[in-house]
Fold this protein.
Amino acid sequence: MTTIEEIWTLIDADEPFTVHLSDGRSFYVKDHHWISAHPSRKSSSVRIFGPADEEEHFIPLFAVTSVSRNGTH
């Protein structure tokens, strides 16, 4: 299971990454502007924006199976 600390490491690196979910979906994060997590760094979910305009996905961390650096679409 992916922890919020792992996701914050990738957000802080400001490089692209992909979030993979247990249901088989994956979301490409272009940079830190395309993902949101509580600034306390203790959140149990993240919001990923895109890929389409005005598209937003609320992702509980228990559904995240992995994250990969420099992810692909």
